[in-house]
Amino acid sequence: MATTQLSLQILRPIPTASVTSRRLSKNFGTRNLAVRTSGSRSSKWALRLSLVERSPSAETTAVDVKQLVDFLYDDLPHLFDDQGIDRTAYDELVKFRDPITKHDSISGYLFNIALLKVLFRPQFFLHWVKQTGPYEITTRWTMVMKFTLLPWKPQLIFTGTSVMGINPDTGKFCSHLDFWDSIKNNEYFSLEGLWDVFKQLRIYKTPDLETPKYQILKRTASYEVRKYAPFIVVETRGDKLSGSTGFNDVAGYIFGKNSTKEKIPMTTPVFTQANDVELSKVSIQIVLPLEKEFSSLPDPNEEKISLRKVEGGIAAVLKFSGKPTDDIVREKEKVLRSSLVKDGLKPMIGCLLARYNDPGRTRTFTMRNEVLIWLEEFSLE
Question: Which Gene3D superfamilies match (predicted)?
Answer without folding.
Answer: Regulatory factor, effector binding domain
